[in-house]
Design goal:
- By secondary structure, the protein is an alpha/beta fold.
- It folds into two domains: 110 residues, Ureohydrolase domain (Arginase, Chain A); 136 residues, Rossmann fold.
- 33% of the residues lie in helices and 21% in strands.
- Strands 1-5-2-6 form a four-stranded parallel β-sheet.
- The longest helix has 17 residues.
- The chain is globular and about 50 Å long.
Length: 272
């Protein structure tokens, strides 16, 4: 691939495949955004990312003293199927496969409607269970997460860097506007004891959506909480978002089997 030609930049670490410690999976669809009346174009995300890989920076970073030369990342390519239903199911299955191999997967969207199916793949991952057996034991065709009693569910912490509370107490669908309701009301998610934390949410949000999200066990860290750190009742200091995010992970991930991180590019637009 053109993006992998450079021998000095991060792009050189990537190669086609599906068996390294880190695996890249593209989901080039934006039907969720389109059905929500949101801006289209996210379908180009995976291929655009690959095109700019050779410009991402050096393998040996002088400023941070980082050496990534021992890391390799395999690029599975893009999820492909005839219908969105089949694409969602294939995405969940690929994530289950990477979990079974002990890999760390990076999913490139695509609009945000892919998130519930990424979470489904992590929650329903079964060690030692081959894919045909797993398919028989899960109701993947309906995406409702109906589980038999003997199917072990994983407790996961979902950290979503996003400016919005994408949910609605009065509507559920796979569109980008309602992804968290789809997740919070999934029986697999509820039974597993998993949790969603929204990180860097803009204060301009609907109170009904906020109340619903909190009532379902979700947590919100507002953008102002990320920008400022409370010292006492009358004093705040400026802080870096990365520091706050790291503290959040260190504090909570010991309680969970896995951590799923979602990064919404709209969060960059809001901050800028």
């Amino acid at each position: 691939m053109e993006a992998y030609k450079s021998s000095k930049t991060i792009g050189a670490l990537f190669h086609p495949g599906f068996y390294d410690q880190f695996v890249l999976i593209g989901f080039p669809y934006d039907e969720g955004a389109r059905s929500s009346g949101l801006r289209a174009g996210a379908a180009y995300g995976p291929d655009c990312f690959r095109r700019f890989l050779h410009k991402l920076g050096p393998i040996h970073n002088a400023e941070f003293g980082a050496d990534l030369s021992e890391i390799t990342v395999c690029d599975y390519g893009n999820i492909s199927a005839s219908t969105m239903k089949e694409r969602y199911e294939k995405l969940s299955n690929k994530i289950r496969l990477t979990m079974g191999r002990g890999q760390i997967s990076f999913i490139l969207g695509g609009s945000k409607d892919l998130i519930p199916f990424c979470i489904k793949g992590v929650t329903e991952y079964q060690p030692g269970l081959k894919m045909p057996e797993l398919k028989e034991k899960t109701d993947s065709s309906t995406h409702k997460g109906i589980q038999p009693e003997n199917l072990k569910l994983h407790k996961i912490l979902i950290l979503a860097i996003t400016p919005f509370i994408d949910t609605d107490p009065n509507e559920i669908s796979t569109s980008s506007k309602y992804i968290w309701r789809h997740t919070l009301e999934d029986p697999s998610f509820i039974k597993s004891g998993s949790k969603v934390v929204l990180f860097g949410v803009n204060s301009i949000c609907d109170k009904n959506n906020y109340d619903y999200f909190i009532s379902k066990g979700g947590s919100i860290i507002w953008l102002d909480e990320v920008r400022k750190q409370k010292v006492n009742a009358n004093k705040f200091i400026q802080t870096q978002a990365g520091k706050v995010f790291e503290e959040l992970i260190n504090k909570q991930n010991v309680e969970y089997d896995h951590v799923y991180v979602s990064f919404d590019l709209e969060s960059v637009m809001v901050i800028c």
